[in-house]
Amino acid sequence: MKSINKTLALIAIASSSAAFAATDFDTLDVDGSGTISQAEASVDAKLMSMFSELDTDQNGELSKEEFSEA
């Protein structure tokens, strides 16, 4: 069920035109995990283009510290 809720939240963000202007960490961290996954970052083209560079520990997620370098 948790996975379905996460998926639905990501779909809602992706379909929202306001989501493409999302640049706030907490707004992008849809699941509240304290990190931004690639799926969550995918709603922001600029962030996605920098994702690999920002993900300095290469764990596939951006911490608040990594995100602050954007």
TrEMBL record:
SUPFAM superfamilies named in the record: EF-hand
InterPro entries to which the protein is assigned, alphabetical: EF-hand-dom_pair (IPR011992), EF_Hand_1_Ca_BS (IPR018247), EF_hand_dom (IPR002048)
UniProt keywords, alphabetically: Signal
Signal peptide: 1-21
Domain EF-hand, first and last residues per copy: 42-70
Keyword Signal annotated: yes
Pfam family of the protein (one): EF-hand_1
GO molecular function: calcium ion binding
Protein name stated in the entry: EF-hand domain-containing protein
Organism, as annotated: Pseudoalteromonas arctica A 37-1-2
